[in-house]
Design goal:
33% of the residues lie in helices and 13% in strands. With 251 residues, the chain is of the alpha/beta class. Helix 7 packs parallel to helix 8. This is Aspartate/glutamate racemase family protein.
Length: 251
């Protein structure tokens, strides 16, 4: 007859030192009022794992995208440090234009930092056949400067297309002309930008979406262009897999 254990197995010593547990990824958010639909980086339901959010007050999309995030570095450094003090083990941001702060943020918080979807470009380029290139779809092609690209190792001659000429995406997200958004029109703006990109640059073999609000439209872009599409969702799920790798221990 098998004996029934009368005590629970030992669980070892639990390590302390944090305020919040079980959410190792911290996301620095811009201050905005447009809808964060499912798939948007700022919608908690987008992620298959828990995350910590911190809104950086005063960091509007217009200031970050159109004005080069001038005067905002200290606010982002403070917010990132706050997330780490709460328990974040890695930091990301919800604007691709914050590639400008990649080195400063990583040095300040001393944990892994991935500021921008643009960081995927060298990796995606390495996967493509000879003669093909990565192309970018960005919320604002006229505002994405060599400084943004150089900060994360993106070639300065990369083909890119923006959404400034669209009817909805740019004016709601960047110009903040209204709080509501016509999702179908926003998707059309992003898809049409991608179509212009591949029409002008048929050598584009894969597309990276710079804007962190574009993942809801990635599948539509892939269908419309026939190219693989990478965005902040693909990058951050990869990023998170490194800080919380799946445990394949034999059981």
């Amino acid at each position: 007859m098998t004996a029934i254990p009368t005590t629970s197995p030992r669980r070892g010593v639990a390590k302390g030192g944090k305020a919040i547990y079980g959410a190792p990824l911290g996301i620095l958010m811009l201050e905005a009022r447009f809808p964060r639909i499912h798939g948007d980086m700022g919608n908690g339901g987008t992620w298959p794992f828990p995350v910590l959010y911190r809104v950086v007050r005063g960091a509007s999309p217009e200031k970050v995208v159109l004005n080069g995030a001038n005067g905002l570095l200290d606010a982002f450094l403070e917010a990132a440090a706050d997330l780490v003090s709460l328990g974040a083990e890695a930091i990301t941001t919800n604007c691709g234009f914050l590639s400008l702060f990649q080195k400063e943020l990583a040095a300040h918080v001393c944990v892994p930092v991935a500021t921008s979807s643009l960081m995927q470009v060298p990796w995606v380029q390495a996967m493509l056949p000879p003669g093909q290139r990565v192309g970018l779809v960005t919320v604002s092609g006229s505002s994405l400067t060599p400084r943004h690209l150089e900060a994360v190792g993106v070639p300065l001659d990369i083909p890119m297309e923006g959404t400034e000429s669209g009817r909805e995406f740019f004016r709601v997200l960047i110009k903040a002309e209204k709080d509501d958004m016509d999702v179908d029109l926003a998707e059309q703006d992003v898809v049409e930008a991608a179509q212009r990109l591949v029409a002008r640059h048929p050598e584009v073999g894969a597309i990276v979406l710079e804007c962190t609000n574009m993942p809801p439209y990635a599948a539509a872009v892939q269908r419309a262009t026939g190219r693989p599409v990478y965005d902040i969702y693909s990058m951050i799920t990869y990023f998170h897999a490194g800080i919380r790798p799946r445990d394949f221990a034999i059981r």
